[in-house]
Amino acid sequence: MDFESSNKQIRLPKKAERVKNKAAAPLQITAEQLLREAKERELEIVPRAPRVRVNDPEEAAEQARKKRKEFEDNIRKNRNQIANWIKYAKWEESIGEIERSRSVFERGLDVDHRNITIWLQYAEMEMRNKQINHARNIWDRAVQILPRATQFWLKYTYMEELVENIPGARQVFERWMEWEPNEQAWQTYINFELRYKEIDRSRDIYQRFLHVHGHDYKNWVRYARFEERFGYAGNARAAFEAAIEFFGDDNLDEQLLVQFAKFEERQKEVERARAIYQYGLDRLPSSKSKGIFDGLAIHEKKYGEQLRIENVIVSKRKRKYEDQLAHNSYDYDTWFDYVNLLMNEQVSREEVEDVYERAIANIPPYEEKRYWRRYIYLWIYYAVYEELDCEDIERARDVFKACLDVIPHKKFTFAKIWIMFSQFEIRQLELTQARKIMGNAIGKCPKKKLFSSYIDMELRFREFDRCRTLYEKLVLFAPDNSSTWIKFAELETILGDVDRARAIFNMAIQQPALDMPEVLWKAYIDFEIEQEENDHVRRLYETLLERTNHIKVWISWTEFEVRIEAFDKARATFKRANDSLESSPAEERILLLETWLEFERTHGNEEEQTAVEKLMPKRVKKRRPILAEDGTDAGWEEYYDYIFPQDQASKVSFKLLEAARLWREKQAAQKENAIPVDRDAESELPSVSEQLEGSDDYEAVKRARGEDGRGDEDSDVEMSSSSSSEDEEEEERQRESESDGKSD
């Protein structure tokens, strides 16, 4: 017998193939559970029962029997479903079977006697059928079994009040209060007594209520308002006082005091209200007294004097600043506002100094200058306050010294502190101390501002030797600072030592790096001009032009020559500048030519003026391609360019030299090959001048040499951009003809 291999793959149905995980589910569900859930969720579509018309009592009894059987079956299926019991009992009530309905409710209570719904439905059924005693018995049973169910008590008292059984309702309330319910229950009892004008009973209930729920100040306020509403102001005041005594200073709430003070205001007791507000301010911390400040401010605006109002506003602002500083003690702007408030209100010196000491104690946590910029002004304001307002010189000096001890001078410093300290000592006529302070500043942390301030101080005292020494140290400290060299030289000039000033300027211009070299050179040149050393000025301009070929230097030189009426030298300078600026941008060359032309119009003759006008460029319109960002062609654009006659002449000269070079190479090649030269053929070859004759370059050469008497055209004549392309084509043809001749 042949057997198939056991490794053969078994084909599964398509639905089974879709299931990836064939393992059993961790939670197994039985068929009974599926059916019960389907019944509970009413997943099965049950056809609607047909409408039956009952004609006689027997049919009605049969119909009731079938209905009861359905309810009993539902209860049997799920006994713990209270909704089935309630539906069953309500159906019995609807057909008038009160006893049966009562029996169903009792059976339901046997199943779950802690269900609030079934108790409520049971009692409401009795009340609908006006069975008051039965309902009362049900409520009694309910509140005994579930005394914390507020609905039972509310429904019970409502029923008793509805049937006008006021003593019975009061008795139910008393039973309820024995369980010490929530605040709503007590308030309901109080409102019940108030509906029947029982003020004394309500007061007693309030007092019992406060024994149970006196931990909340709102209940005390509610009781006081109750007494006030019925005209018992003494009792209301006693309630507030008892509340304050009950909470004590540790647990006192600001709103309790505010409400107490407002009560006194309503009773026209202004002084008592003010005393209550002050009591709160004295005992509560600032974080819990904002409401008291607001209330006191409103109270003083209504009943107080101007001074009292201002004091309240100041106190409120002080508390506001204190709260902000408690949140962030490094908020130096708030410290400034706080100090300014105290100084404007002229409070005691001890209080202002205390705030200053607290402020300067908040040293910035990071040793970076940007964190210290606002902080350092606290020390400055403190020192100024001690010197000017308090006139305490020694304390002001101590403040300055303490400030300098706090600043980390190895990382950064504040020159203004050193300067203000030295000025403070000068005001006290302590010049030696002031110099010592500035000397320490320069020794610990040298800065240009410190040197400048120290020099200014010595200048005021006419100590010029000290100034020279300080300037020498300053130029060693910052040799790249042009203004320092200039001021040093100005000092020597003022003192009349011109040679020393000139030596200082010479040392300055020899520095390898300067922050503003143009300012230094201008100052040096102006110095030599003031000394009327024209040769020195020209030598300076020559030296400066060796370092830079800037248009402003040339124009400044020409202006100097014009100022001293050396017109020939000015003209020569213009010519040198024009030759030197050939490779400069067109705008600079035009500026130079315009300045030159203006000079010739003022100080020259017509011949010189005409010569300059011939050097003016032509303004031509050209086109150039435009490239997009991705490198593609985006069209053409027109622009204006300037063509200088000098540039064209140099271009033609270059072409002549190129032609001569080619001719020399041709002659050398003929000698090497020893080819006899045909004189007639050579005579037929055109010369270089003949080759250029008739071309645009030839015309440009003639204009440059002055052979054409027509002069230059107007500078605004527009030319086509095709002239440059024609020149290139002519050069190409000339090179081809020469190469052909060489090959022959």
Automatic annotation (TrEMBL):
Q: List the GO biological process terms.
A: spliceosomal complex assembly
> Keyword 4Fe-4S: yes or no?
no
Disordered as annotated region, ranges: 668-744
Q: Under what name is this protein listed?
A: Crooked neck protein
Q: What does this protein do?
A: Involved in pre-mRNA splicing and cell cycle progression. Required for the spliceosome assembly and initiation of the DNA replication.
- Highest taxon of the source? Eukaryota
Q: Which UniProt keywords apply?
A: mRNA processing, mRNA splicing, Nucleus, Repeat, Spliceosome
Its lineage opens with: Eukaryota, Metazoa, Ecdysozoa, Nematoda, Chromadorea
Organism field:
Panagrolaimus superbus
Start and end residues of each Pre-mRNA-splicing factor Syf1/CRNKL1-like C-terminal HAT-repeats domain:
84-306, 335-540
Where found in the cell? Nucleus
**Similarity comment: family membership:** Belongs to the crooked-neck family.
List, as start-end ranges, the regions of compositional bias called Basic and acidic residues.
699-709, 732-744
Q: Name one GO cellular component term.
A: precatalytic spliceosome
Q: Does the keyword Membrane apply?
A: no
